[in-house]
Amino acid sequence: MDDKIIATFCLCDDLLKAMHHHEDRQCQMNDAEVMTTACVASLCFRGNHESARAMLQQHGYIPHMVSKSRFNRRLHRIKDIFFVLFNVLGQIFSTGHFV
Fold first, then answer.
1. Terminus-to-terminus CA distance in the chain, angstroms?
2. Residue 23 near residue 30 (C-beta atoms within 8 A)
3. What is the chain's alpha carbon radius of gyration, rounded to the nearest angstrom?
4. How far is Cα 6 from Cα 99, in angstroms, rounded to an integer?
5. pLDDT at residue 99 is higher than 70
6. What's residue 26's pLDDT?
7. Considering only 37-41, 86-90, 91-95, which range has the smallest mean pLDDT?
8. CB–CB of 64/30 below 8 Å?
9. CA 63 distance to own-chain centroid
């Protein structure tokens, strides 16, 4: 599971950097961490964001985890980035270039 979490974070972080995505400097948790938490919830916890939040914080993957309410607001704020992420993944898988 460690490899999935780390790979997911790296993918999300690289995507945001490629998009020149800027965040507020005061954020405790960056958008790549928000995206990673949502992806881990869908991959490992049947979409349960609260379980993913708790696990990622307890195991030290995301030490500055925001509250459930703040997480949901942040997730909804970046929902359009998920469309870009899934589009990129779809193109990669359709061409067969996984590396």
1. 20
2. yes
3. 13
4. 16
5. no
6. 87
7. 91-95
8. no
9. 15
DSSP 63-91: TTPPPHHHHHHHHHHTHHHHHHHHHHHHH
Spatial distance between the Cα atoms of 52 and 38, rounded to a whole number of angstroms? 8
Residue 39 is which amino acid?
C
Q: Which two tokens stand for residue 86?
A: 């899934």
Residue where the block lists tokens 């960056």: 30
pLDDT at 68 over 80: yes
Instruction: Render pLDDT for 8-59 as a digit per residue (tens, 0 to 9).
Output: 999 999 999 999 999 888 888 999 999 999 999 999 999 999 999 999 999 9
- Determine the angle formed by the axes of helices 31-44 and 49-58, rounding to 10 degrees: 110
What is the greatest pairwise CA distance in the chain? 40
